[in-house]
Design goal:
Helix content: 55-70%
Distance between the termini: 38 Å
Radius of gyration: 15 Å
Strand content: under 5%
Shape: globular
Number of helices: 6
Length: 115
């Protein structure tokens, strides 16, 4: 199996250039261990779900925390289709812990989420 990966699409590259709001995970985004952890958590949350190959490829190719943030909706949809909405919400709640700033947790305030 080749270790090379296909380049990102033009749209993916353009989206990275757009200015964005401050993300709630700005403190943890620099942690090099976070991406493999997120990758394994996403794959774990898809356990028992016959997920599309495109979603699995996107999880493997994600290079930034933002990439994983945007994959959450797709993961939710696939789990809800395979199981139900309650199961999808429970699995997504475990993932959301990785996107919450510890300060927000301390003050019981949710982080600013992208709409």
């Amino acid at each position: 199996m080749s270790a090379t990966r296909s380049p990102d699409s033009l749209l993916q590259n353009l989206l990275r250039w757009l200015p964005g709001e401050k993300t709630p995970w700005h403190v943890r985004a620099e942690d090099p261990a976070l991406l493999p952890l997120l990758r394994s958590e996403f794959e774990r949350c898809l356990g028992g779900v016959d997920a599309p190959q495109e979603l699995m490829r996107s999880i493997r190719r994600a290079r930034r925390v933002d990439d994983f943030w945007h994959l959450r909706g797709w993961l939710y949809t696939e789990v809800a289709r395979a199981h139900d909405q309650q199961e999808a919400e429970q699995r997504l709640a475990r993932l959301n812990l990785h996107f919450t700033d510890p300060v927000d947790t301390f003050f019981l305030v949710g982080p600013v989420r992208r709409q």
